[in-house]
Design a protein that fits this description.
The chain has 25 helices and 18 strands. The chain is α/β, with parallel strands linked by helices. The strands form 4 sheets. Strands 12-11-13-14-10-15-18 form a 7-stranded mixed sheet, sandwiched between helices. Strands 6-5-4-9-8-7 form a 6-stranded antiparallel sheet. A 3-stranded mixed sheet has the order 1-2-3, sandwiched between helices.
Length: 560
């Protein structure tokens, strides 16, 4: 921690980023979650990471840099070796006649400045950048995984003919997991093919081929993973599920393991479950101020339901966890039932569904109600029994959070009615419904302007929606990523949400009790000021956060 909590407190108040009431809540949250005020302020949506970094830099009287907005030539960042860059959380980002410019998470560290100055024989100017920003910039050092793998084999065994006897299997598995972690991959797929074994990483929701293993290594890599996750090594014809924990870059990384037999052998998928990836607030996720106000109003109620909807991989759980972090105070008893428990949160009770012991969502929810809860999170409402218990819990003074697999916010309402929940109960218990998708963000390091003709875009997007965000010009300016080392030459780094939020008004409640179609409810919600996902996506295109292709991809509109 760069500054003590007392100083962060003073900076937040002086900048009017928070008032005394919010600050008091932040200090309580920091104490309960055993974190510092700086992290608490970011997690609780009180201030953005960049803005707080700028406040700290101004206080320390050092210049501030946002590395995501700077193009860093390869010859420049390699002035500092990767090992030292990671150790000191430092990135050399520019060099000119005045000297070398280096970004530090801790600009008071003079040791690294002396080292760079001796190496370059130039004066060094230190800048401050946030830890998150530096972590992203460390991707610049990323070598091609295939190249690193080949170098590892050559170093360890020399001759590829020794592959089956002397291959460093433990190092190979560690290498795969470390690369996936640093690339912010959510999953690792290891798939046997006829001649090779293909390794793919899911990054920002998209699968990328990253490595071909010799087929001789596949079974040995698989056996190593089975040993680490305590699975049967002699079982090859049935599916197995397990979990393991490894230490990667000073973090305990949990991995969920799934192995299934396929035609060419056994395929394994590793799901990376890391708090490193989950430290998001609703602001980080891209929720606009209007929708954030609706969600906060629902969060501040002591009863009712908050529903998050969308298909698999749309970020529902991340949004719910962000809300749970806001609710997580010492005076509340928060209990969850999940399948699986993806992310451990200090201070809340998390239950793992276990069908073998008859611990289902429904039976677990019944047990939770006997545990005197204030807030309940049901991982997913899958059936009428769970829906009925959740609604009754919301009616009897509990705040219930859950997820539903529906395409948009309005469809969640008739879906609950289909699950045998009475319409008047749906109307009186649901506080807010959040529908969302995740779109990839344009890489700031290689972002470029591009002009598109409006006539080409109206083929896929209603002209009224386009004119609302871009006016009536015949051409519009949008942004694309050219592709660089930071974004693995995809043009995108990270993801952001596009949302639509329905707040229960009296008119919408009346429509629900009348069993109106979701189309009718959507029209009423729009009349009352709801931003649709398409509108939210177009707003993010106009501000340069994402691309038209991404919004069309996730909103299921026919692509360009």
């Amino acid at each position: 921690m760069l500054l003590p909590d007392d100083q962060i407190k003073a900076l937040l108040l002086q900048s009017r980023s928070v008032d005394e009431k919010i600050l008091s809540d932040l200090l309580l949250f920091a104490a309960n979650s055993r974190t510092n005020l700086q992290e608490a302020a970011i997690e609780k949506d009180a201030i953005t990471d960049e803005k707080l970094g700028l406040l700290i830099a101004n206080y320390l009287k050092v210049p501030f840099v946002s590395l995501g907005k700077v193009t860093i030539p390869e010859t420049i960042f390699h002035i500092l070796p990767e090992r030292l860059a990671r150790k000191y959380k430092a990135i050399v980002f520019a060099r000119d006649t005045d000297g070398v410019k280096i970004a530090l998470a801790d600009p008071t560290n003079t040791q690294i400045l002396e080292m760079v100055s001796k190496k370059t024989l130039q004066p060094v100017v230190s800048y401050m950048a946030t830890e998150r920003d530096i972590e992203n910039a460390l991707q610049l050092y990323r070598k091609d995984l295939q190249q690193t793998f080949d170098e590892l084999l050559k170093k360890e065994i020399g001759d590829a003919s020794n592959l089956t006897d002397d291959a460093p299997i433990a190092k190979i598995v560690d290498l795969l997991i470390t690369y996936a972690y640093r690339d912010k991959a959510s999953d690792i797929h290891i798939e046997p093919e006829e001649k090779d074994s293909l390794v793919r990483f899911r990054i920002d929701g998209i699968l990328h081929d990253v490595l071909y293993l010799d087929k001789k290594l596949h079974d040995r890599v698989l056996t190593r993973i089975k040993v680490l996750s305590r699975l049967r090594t002699d079982e090859h014809m049935s599916a197995q599920d397990g979990k393991m924990r490894l230490d990667v870059d000073d973090e305990n990384l949990d991995l969920r393991v799934s192995i299934i037999p396929i035609a060419e052998g056994e395929k394994v998928v590793l799901r990376l479950l890391s708090s490193h990836f989950r430290q998001f607030s609703l602001l980080d996720l891209g929720m606009n101020a209007k929708d954030l106000k609706k969600v906060n109003a629902a969060v501040n109620k002591s009863y009712g339901m908050i529903l998050s909807t969308g298909p698999t991989g749309s970020g529902k759980s991340t949004s719910i966890y962000s809300i749970i972090k806001i609710l997580n105070t010492r005076e509340k008893n928060i209990t969850t039932i999940e399948d699986p428990v993806e992310y451990r949160v200090k201070g809340i009770n998390q239950i793992q569904v276990n069908v073998k012991t008859n611990l289902t969502f429904a039976s677990g929810l019944r047990s939770i109600l006997r545990q005197d809860p204030n807030v309940i999170f049901v991982g997913e409402i899958r059936d009428s029994e769970t829906a009925g218990i959740a609604v009754n819990a919301a009616l009897t003074g509990h705040l219930v959070l859950s997820t539903l697999h529906t395409n948009d916010a309005a469809t969640a309402l008739p879906r609950l009615i289909d699950m045998k929940v009475e319409p008047f109960l749906v109307a009186s218990t649901v506080n807010v419904i959040i529908a969302q998708r995740l779109v990839r963000k344009v890489c700031e390091s290689c972002k470029t302007e591009e002009t598109m003709q409006m006539s080409d875009i109206v083929k896929n997007i209603p002209v009224e929606a386009l004119e609302k965000h871009f006016g009536t010009e015949t051409s519009i300016v949008v942004y694309q990523g050219k592709g660089c080392k930071v974004c693995h030459f995809t043009g995108y780094t990270g993801r952001i949400g596009i949302f639509e939020v329905i707040e229960m008004s009296e008119k919408i409640k009346k429509l629900i009790t009348e069993k109106s179609d979701s189309d009718v409810i959507v029209r009423e919600a729009i009349n009352e000021g709801m931003t649709t996902m398409l509108d939210d996506g177009l707003e993010k295109i106009a501000s340069g956060m994402t691309t038209i292709e991404e919004v069309l991809r996730v909103t299921k509109v026919e692509s360009l």
